[in-house]
Amino acid sequence: MSAARVRSVSSNLSVAPEQLTVGGYVAGDVLVSSEDLQDRILAIGAEIAADYVGRQPLLVGVLKGAFMFMSDLARAIDLPVEFDFMAVSSYGHSTRSSGVVRIVKDLDIDLTGRDVILVEDIIDSGLTLNYLRRNLLARNPASLEVCALLVRENHAVDEAILRYEGFRVPGDFLVGYGLDVDEKFRNLPDIRIAGRSDVGVGDEATT
Ligand code: IMP
Ligand code: MG
Fold it and tell me: Which of 72, 124, 180, 190 is catalytic?
């Protein structure tokens, strides 16, 4: 599936101002609106349902970022699916990938012979994805595909492994719809560009 290109929209009036400035951070301009997210997720769900007819895929969500996407995606797949989650740590409280991935919570379900779909919030460098694919393939699934809501334009993974994807996004640090900065903003209904409230959104690169 080809990913949609993002187009910025200026505001989302349904989010209260006090949700947008928290703990020294600002959730600024909307990059992907909640309507565009939901439309795209319905399309991905329909595509997965068509691809897996007669099978019961196991959705493996990567916590915490993918929880909201996984919840909406699962309802958009008109097939009997199962869920499991794993939690990995690669960012800590920083906004840069450390390159070190640690499994904080492993799966409960045995992957042997299962049709697994790995559900990710965002593929940034791709380090997390590469690590997880190797780890899951070693458990002998019948198949393993990747479904990522967001993919950076300059990611460093083989395009062939990105089976389902929502939107190609630029390098800005993003929050909302599961994505956080320092655990904040995960419950926003849209994807926004994050900044520091003391320097103003978009000023970071020049200060
Ligand atoms: P990667 O290993 O560099 O691909 O990083 C992937 C993980 O980093 C994602 O699953 C997110 O948890 C986190 N991440 C990367 N970019 C962002 C962002 O813009 N906002 C919030 N989290 C991000
Ligand atoms: Mg993540």
Answer: 124
